[in-house]
Amino acid sequence: MKALLIFRYLLLIAVYSACSTDDEASSNDLKQYTVIRFGESQNISENGGQQEVILPFDSKTISVGEIQLKLESNNELNLRTVPEILNGILSIQVQAGASHASFFITPEDDEIVTNMQKIVFSIYALSGNLIKANNNQLVILLSDDELMGMPRAYHTRSNEGSETKEFFYDNAKQLITVETEVISGFGWKESSQYFYSEDGNLIKVISVFDEDPESNLETLYYWKNGNIHQTVNKYDGISFSYTNYDYDQNGNLIASSAYDKDELGNESLEAKSSYEYYSDGRLKTESTTFYFDEELNYKINYDNYLPVLNPFTQILPGVNAQKGLPGLIEYKFGEDNYSRIYTYEFGDDGKLTKRKATGETTTYSYH
């Protein structure tokens, strides 16, 4: 037994020594190469003229080389590059001793709303002592100056998962598409298309979900006296619920009643909501009663507002009931109560960039 233990000990030493030698050799081999690290996406503006895109290296090159990037974007791009893209390939010459490579992009500054465009390159070929890192894609985000300052997206990350919403607009700067992705125990992707009447009122939203792309959820909007007074929900063309809305003399949403419809057309009250406001028009209280087997009451109180408008939150499309940024939100569901304190961060231009609470962070981006 003692001899066997000594043998195992010597075997472990031999294996460890071999691994250490291999690691050292591998490390020495890597020192002969320069790694291209794309990192996060880079941003350029449509009206920015010629702009340089940097490809950083982890160390200086020891020989001349070449980087060939393949354009992966399928959408038509109105831009020029230096060097020029030929047959979908962008070739960049790299000198010895270089700490990075670069090329130039000049977007066409048109007067058309194109929304944020994603330009994607992948490494097609490398020469010299250049090698690629794990991230093989260079992502460039081209901002649309016609939408400058308008909300583009927000991303919420919490202990339960994450949610991302991205907004797209037409030439009249009306919202036409919202892309949603939820990552959690029950994650999904949703794409919603917005449709308008000739006078600019929202009349329909059609949503498609990734788990059932052949089906769709359709919401119809009916207007009266300049406000949405009813919405009707249809699944694959069959109506299954509707909601009625009431407003005060200032146009603030003050109440809603939601009804379900069964296969026979029988209706039942599902929920009632009421909304109260502070004197300055900011939302104070949102109260909802659900009518299931027993009544359930849900209430949200908003307080400690910042003197800044909320650019994102809407209860109804086009009806921005939550106009401000509350610093305190109190929740009451049945006998359960809890609250959250929110803090906010703003960019140099004064726009909201981040909201934080315990276990939750939301970041906001703009065109």
Automatic annotation (TrEMBL):
Superkingdom per UniProt: Bacteria
Signal peptide: 1-20
Entry keywords, A to Z: Signal
Protein name, entry field: DUF4595 domain-containing protein
